Amino acid sequence: MLDLAIRNADIVTAADRYRAEIGIRDGRIVTISEDVGPAREEIDAAGLLVLPGGIDAHVHLAQPQGGGVVMADGFESGTRSAAAGGTTTVMPFALQQKGQSLREVVEAYHAEADGKCHVDISFHLIITDPTPAVLGQELPALVKAGYTSFKVFMTYDDMVLNDAELLEVFDVARRERAMVMVHAEGYDAIKFMAKRLEEAGKTAPYYHAESRPQSVEREATHRAISHAELTDVPITIVHVSGRDPMEQIQWAKRRGLNVHAETCPQYIALTADDLKGLNMDFEGAKYVCSPPPRDTDSQKAIWEGLRDGTFDIFSSDHCPFRFDDPAGKDVAGARTSFRWVPNGIPGIETRLPILFSEGVSKGRISLERFVALTATNPARLFGLAPRKGSITVGADADLTLWDPARKVTITHEILHDACDYTPYEGMEVTGWPVRTLLRGRTIAAEGAITGTPGQGVYLERGTSRAFG
Ligand code: URP
Ligand code: ZN
Ligand code: ZN
User: Fold this and answer.
1) I need a labelling partner for 446 at 20 to 30 A (CA). Which of 127, 156, 210, 315 fits?
2) Do 318 and 427 sit in the same domain of this protein?
3) Mutate which of 290, 321, 351 for ligand 1 pocket (most atoms within 8 A of beta carbon)
4) pLDDT in tens, 74-112
5) DSSP 134
6) Residues 339 and 437 in one domain
7) Mean pLDDT of 20-35
């Protein structure tokens, strides 16, 4: 006897769309056929699409900030918001601060997340202090234990790695078969620009965008690609914002290099003009993130890249800070210069609706491509396939029932995070997740959270498919 049968399912995968029934037992898909037979519980999915639960491969939750700033979402509110938005797995970062052992970092993040998650989670490591012990012992041991990806930064005080350090980390990644995610913006160029703008009295949030133009991202993207070529390791360039860095990625892919790329909702739904707020006021801080949103030409380029395979994955880069809060965007100093405004914007719950509406509903990408970008490819790139990311026999029954015709106006009131705004306030979308199932259990339905914290489990991961 099945635990659950989903009837009249219009199933979408990265390859196909077809009508069938889905049979679920013990949290896994055990059969897909025209008639799966009797079950203890039934869902009639007529009129809805049945998609693999979303996988958001880039989120920040409960990440320590320093300087009195506190991230708005921890593991409970962040994963609750993910569930309501049709996402069943999130991949937050575990940040190493200088001087910290990676083992300690991982243990602290587990202690923080344990028992709180509504959806499944798995950590990427952020390497900021690549000491001989980290490179020689801790990283190899952690990769073997299932932490098969890490992020490095080419910018930000306290996080930036120099070229020699990047090469050392890349080399370990090649040896241990781990995926490196690269934040590609050039540190020195940004410092130079920020100083110049401040000296000219250009301190409003908008100048954050002017301090990190596309050339800064383009140069760092190319440098990261060259280092990856030299060390013969796959990399993923994360949060790619526009045409210039994209061209470097296309160049690398044409050369047959093992380079992958991610983009995010802010680069299709926002522009640098949003950082101007109302007449260059502090409202613009709501949109401060790095790299910053660009212009309509870049949005056009991003759509081409989402269609043609330049981009492999579409993540939120959810990095929430409350707006009206001295522990958030309004921290001491933020009104005196863009340099002190915390970088990052929320988006874990709106990621799928925005891509669906702007992409599928407007005819820019196919349904299959939507599934590839938001579930199947992230699972493959980060070692979660075949358990996650597709609707197939043997996989976890992580499913999102999607109403392609539902029209919704996004407002922060209807979202489930712990931030106090959404950058997409007032945006109208067509297509909405109406029910989210994690291993066959309904964790969110019609905007209500029906699961409980602790239902999400920690996922140890295998090797990225980028290694073949
Ligand atoms: O502005 C952003 N994206 N903040 C989050 C940290 C990062 O670089 O991903
Ligand atoms: Zn980043
Ligand atoms: Zn990020």
Assistant:
1) 315
2) no
3) 290
4) 999 999 999 999 999 999 999 999 999 999 999 999 999
5) I
6) no
7) 98
Give the count of domains, the chain.
2
Which range marks the domain in which residue 127 is found? 53-370
In a domain, residue 462? The reply is no
Report the pLDDT averaged over residues 388-409.
98
Residue 271 and residue 285 in one domain = yes
Q: What 8-state DSSP symbol labels residue 232?
A: T
Tens digit of pLDDT for each residue in 103-158? 999 999 999 999 999 999 999 999 999 999 999 999 999 999 999 999 999 999 99
The Å distance, Cα 289 to ligand 1 centre, comes to: 6
CB-based burial label for 418 (10 Å; 0-12, 13-18, 19+): middle
Residue type at 127 in one-letter notation:
I
Local confidence band at 398 (pLDDT 50, 70, 90 cut-offs) = very high
Report yes or no on 319 lying in a domain: yes
The answer to the question of residue 332 being in a domain is yes
**pLDDT, average across residues 331-342:** 98
Amino acid, res. 45: A
Predicted model pTM:
0.98
**Which of 308, 336, 370 is where one domain is finished?**
370
Distance in angstroms (rounded) separating the CA atoms of residues 17 and 37 = 22
Looking from the CA of residue 93, the nearest atom of ligand 1 is 9
Residues 273 and 315 in one domain: yes
For residue 293, which ligand has an atom nearest its CA? 1
- Mean pLDDT, to the nearest integer, of 391-417? 98
| Residue 345 CA, ligand 1 centroid: distance in Å | 8
The proportion of the chain whose per-residue pLDDT surpasses 70, expressed as a percent, equals 100
Residue 199 has what pLDDT? Answer: 98
Give the pLDDT confidence score for residue 204 in this predicted structure: 98
> CB atoms < 10 A from the CB of 83, how many?
33
Tell me whether residue 208 is in a domain. yes
At position 335, the amino acid (one-letter code) is R
Q: CA–CA separation, 162 vs 214, rounded Å?
A: 20
Residue 92 CA: which ligand is closest? 3
Residue 439 and residue 364 share a domain: no
Q: How far, in Å, from the CA of 188 to the mean position of ligand 2? A: 16
158 & 98 share domain = yes
Q: Which atom of ligand 1 is nearest to the CA of 319?
A: 5
Burial of 251 (0-12, 13-18, 19+ CB in 10 A): middle
What residue ranges line ligand 1, CB within 6 angstroms? 60, 183, 239, 289-290, 317, 319, 343-344
Q: Do 9 and 99 reside in the same domain of the chain?
A: no
Q: Are residues 76 and 25 in the same domain?
A: no
Asked if 91 and 56 count as a contact pair (C-beta separation under 8 A), the reply is yes
Rounded to whole angstroms, how far apart are CA atoms 1 and 112? 38
Nearest CA to ligand 1 atom 9: 317
pLDDT tens string 243-286 = 999 999 999 999 999 999 999 999 999 999 999 999 999 999 99
Centre of ligand 3 to C-alpha 132, Å, is 26
Q: Closest ligand to 316 CA?
A: 3
